[in-house]
């Protein structure tokens, strides 16, 4: 039997430096209403967005990986965007999309005829889904393990931890993925800032 070596890639501390802070903070620094002030109508005070997101019809979604079969592994189908959108459906979409996206991206960019095993698990982080304006912020994490035979005939196993934050809104969904767990994982808004559109309607 060929020897097996294992290498675990833990890059948790490397991504935090690239996390952008939110572009602006919400503030109620406007003048206080007086007795002569007319109340604002609902159309004049729209629900604030948690951070800068593309307007409906003004964004271009990421081109999802669409690989061909590799080493006996078939590409997976992406989930439909949920309607109606609520905390539960946003969480389910983020979990399913992240799993398919990571799997298909691996097939498209790294898998080859020497790939022997591919294992992927993605779960929503417990109690981390947050309401954000008209949408939801969802954190997912998981584990990605692959094995392939090298030139010497040895089986090399690579284990990766993954983390991603999604913003799922009525007309747009954003994704920002990480390798490992960022140090600033306590703030989903901060981690989602600068996310790439994966759904535009």
UniProtKB/TrEMBL annotation:
PROSITE patterns: PROKAR_LIPOPROTEIN, TAT. Residues 24-75 are annotated as: Disordered. It comes from the Archaea. InterPro entries: TAT_signal (IPR006311). Residues 31-44 have a biased composition (Low complexity). This is Uncharacterized protein.
């Amino acid at each position: 039997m060929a020897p097996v070596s294992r290498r675990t890639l833990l890059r948790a501390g490397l991504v935090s430096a690239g996390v952008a802070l939110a572009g602006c903070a919400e503030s109620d620094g406007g003048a206080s209403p007086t007795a002569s002030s007319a109340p604002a109508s609902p159309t004049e005070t729209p629900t604030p967005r948690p951070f800068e997101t593309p307007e409906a019809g003004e964004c271009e979604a990421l081109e999802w990986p669409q690989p061909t079969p590799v080493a006996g592994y078939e590409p997976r189908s992406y989930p439909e965007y949920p309607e109606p959108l609520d905390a539960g459906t946003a969480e389910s979409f983020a979990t399913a999309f992240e799993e398919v996206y990571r799997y298909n991206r691996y097939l498209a960019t790294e898998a080859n005829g020497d790939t022997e095993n591919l294992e992927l698990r993605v779960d929503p982080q417990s109690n981390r889904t947050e309401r954000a304006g008209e949408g939801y912020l969802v954190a997912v994490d998981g584990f990605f393990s692959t094995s392939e035979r090298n030139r010497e005939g040895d089986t090399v196993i690579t284990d990766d931890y993954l983390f991603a934050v999604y913003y799922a809104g009525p007309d747009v969904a954003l994704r920002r993925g990480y390798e490992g767990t960022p140090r600033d994982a306590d703030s989903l808004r901060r981690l989602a800032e600068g996310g790439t559109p994966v759904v535009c309607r």
